[in-house]
Amino acid sequence: MTIDHIRCTRCQACVAACPERLIGAGPVTDPDLATYCLRCGHCLAACPAGAIAVEGVGEAPAGAGVSSAALLALLRARRSGRQYTNEPVAREHLRALLDAAATAPSAKNFRAVKVYVYTDAATITALRAATVACYRRLRGLLRLPGHRVLYRLLGVPAALHEKLDHDARFLTATDGDPLLHGARTLLAFTAPRGWAQGVGDAWLAAHSAVLYAETIPLATCYNGFVAQAAGMDGRVRRALGVPARETTVAVLTLGYPAARPHRALVREGLAAAWDLEG
């Protein structure tokens, strides 16, 4: 980052905003510490005089914000969409989703999340086939004697046994397209393998895209079947085109909705533990 000391009013807002404490009172910066700059842009956003520039970070108007009521209404109205029209998703809408995903926070601003966009029918068909084949093989393994004992020794909850068996049967024995619901577009969000914080970053990026999709409007649905299969089976990962050094965190099916819900839902609250309760 650089400071234009002619425009700077010496308000020290950037000093307070820097999460790494790399800007000293003045404000002044130490060139020897420049390598530790996260390029997060907090200093740029906090500067009222527009005296700061950060490499690789652009600016946009702050905007008027969204009311709490409007945001809560959008969150309650959002539903996972599994009914899509045959209309392909417009390229400008895909770019808008990627722009929205890029606004998500990232641990240490590392921004190692990658998004794979699938619109080619042959690629999607191959991915569908590889994933269904994965669950067909899994179904065969679940029939072997002793697999429940192995799961128990590994600490896998008993409820998950039944869920895996149901998923395998559902995806391999149901007519139509229970896996992708006929979606003509998919997004896969990946993170560097072995980096726990990157997994969180990928989920945040995916959900930023999901929420923005409600404004276009596009219907989206998290597809845990494909993401789980990509982690279990290299053939699914290769069908996705994801290298072994990346983990497939979240997969979305999306398209223009063939049907919209008629009402929003109010869900049961989350379990919460308050530290002030005796």
What does the secondary structure layout of this molecule look like, with pairings?
Layout lengths: L1 E2 L9 H5 L5 E2 L3 E2 L12 H5 L5 E2 L14 H10 L13 H11 L12 E5 L2 H22 L4 H8 L3 H16 L11 E8 L3 H18 L5 E4 L1 H9 L1 H7 L5 E10 L23
Helix pairs in contact: 4-8, 5-7, 5-9, 5-10, 9-10
Instruction: Report the uncertain regions.
Output: none
Total domain count: 2
Largest sheet: 4 strands, antiparallel
The residue fraction in helices comes out at: 25-40%
Task: Let me know the CATH homologous superfamily of the largest domain.
Answer: NADH Oxidase
| Number of separate strands | 8
CATH topology description of the largest domain: NADH Oxidase
CATH class of the largest domain: Alpha Beta
Radius of gyration: 23 Å
CATH architecture descriptor name of the largest domain: 3-Layer(aba) Sandwich
Strand order of the biggest β-sheet = 5-6-8-7
The gross shape turns out to be: globular
What percentage of the residues does DSSP assign to strands (E)?
Answer: 5-15%
